[in-house]
Design goal:
Blueprint lengths: L2 H17 L4 H17 L6 H21 L1
Helix pairs in contact: 1-2, 2-3
């Protein structure tokens, strides 16, 4: 997948996150997938997106621990 296409898809994820915050987990999974694709191209990962991925991961891990 072309770099520009990945950027568009990541941008779409942000729009989705703003419009549908209840679907954060699905968006997080899609973001992880897109970052993985970007990494596979050898392109550097945007630090803000990596940070967002880590923040969401920590949030979901915390929620999981609370349920257990």
């Amino acid at each position: 997948m072309a770099f520009e296409q990945l950027k568009l898809e990541i941008s779409s994820l942000f729009t989705q996150m703003q419009n549908e915050p209840e679907d954060k987990h699905e968006i997080y999974l899609a973001l992880r997938e897109k970052l993985g694709q970007l990494k596979a191209t050898g392109m550097p990962l945007p630090e803000d997106l990596v940070r967002l991925e880590h923040e969401l991961e920590a949030e979901f891990s915390s929620e999981q621990r609370k349920r257990e």
